[in-house]
Automatic annotation (TrEMBL):
UniProt protein name: ABC-2 family transporter protein
Pfam families attached to this UniProt entry: ABC2_membrane_6
Superkingdom per UniProt: Bacteria
Keywords annotated in UniProt: Membrane, Transmembrane, Transmembrane helix
TM region(s), chain numbering: 94-113, 120-143, 155-177, 214-232
Organism, scientific name: Streptomyces mirabilis
Coiled coil regions in record: none
Length: 244
């Protein structure tokens, strides 16, 4: 916990210093003021902490269960594997949310993060964050389900983490990228996980235009839920219990 706290503090301070330095000689860039850019960047760091629990050390990743054969117990318990996976992810996200919310309160107090423009903005942002984490849950689930066909998903996770951070706006807001890159990201679910909620928070997307963005997030939730449900059914056919 001490290491996680130290890492989070260092990341927030470095990111805030970087973006303040970038805006030292300009007032507005890509439609963002310095305060908006710093707020966006700090919130992006805090958001990544929601799903930062180290499952590998606890030997509780799907890849490890597939390697050691313990994945069979997911199908022998009274609790269905998809429900167990969902409850485990919910606990992980609630734990990460405590870190993120505590960090948000501290950053708000020291001035690294600006408060939402209004109560409506805060409400829409909260709903968008919920939908965004829901989309991210299904994206991570798809990668874990890949193990039922490949046994290992280490390379896929590395690719996913990079794509998620790049296409969702963790490294930098998407408005700084070329038009073709922004257009490409709209056809992928990553933008719905982080870029949309933070854009609503900093005011890049007005509350009056929030409905289409929320609808798109909800559509990704439904589409990925149906897709992962199909994969769960097919994955169950590939699990074999030998010797008992």
């Amino acid at each position: 916990m001490t290491a996680a706290l130290l890492r989070l503090v260092v990341q927030v301070v470095l990111v805030a210093s970087l973006w303040r330095g970038l805006y030292a000689t300009t007032g507005t860039t890509a439609g963002l003021t310095r305060d908006q850019a710093v707020t966006y960047a700090v919130l992006a760091v805090l958001a990544t902490r929601i799903r930062a629990l180290d499952q590998y050390s606890g030997r509780d990743t799907v890849q490890q269960h597939m390697h050691f054969g313990t994945i069979v117990y997911w199908y022998l318990r009274p609790l269905p594997p998809q429900r167990y996976y969902a409850l485990r992810a919910l606990g992980e996200q609630l734990y990460g949310f405590l870190w993120a919310s505590t960090g948000y309160a501290v950053c708000l107090a020291v001035g690294f993060v600006q408060p939402p423009g209004s109560a409506a903005v805060a409400a829409v942002f909260g709903l968008s964050v919920l939908l965004g984490q829901w989309v991210l849950y299904y994206v991570m689930l798809v990668i874990d389900q890949l193990c039922f066909w490949t046994l290992r998903n280490g390379a896929a996770i590395l690719i996913l983490v990079f794509a998620q951070n790049l296409l969702s706006g963790v490294y930098a807001p998407l408005w700084f990228f070329p038009d073709w890159f922004i257009t490409l990201s709209r056809f992928l679910p990553f933008q719905a996980t982080l870029s949309v909620p933070l854009s609503l928070y900093v005011g890049r997307i007005p509350v009056s235009q929030a409905a289409p963005q929320l609808a798109l997030q909800a559509a990704w939730v439904v589409a990925l839920a149906l897709f992962t449900r199909l994969l769960w059914r097919r994955a169950a056919r590939r699990v074999i219990s030998q010797g008992g």
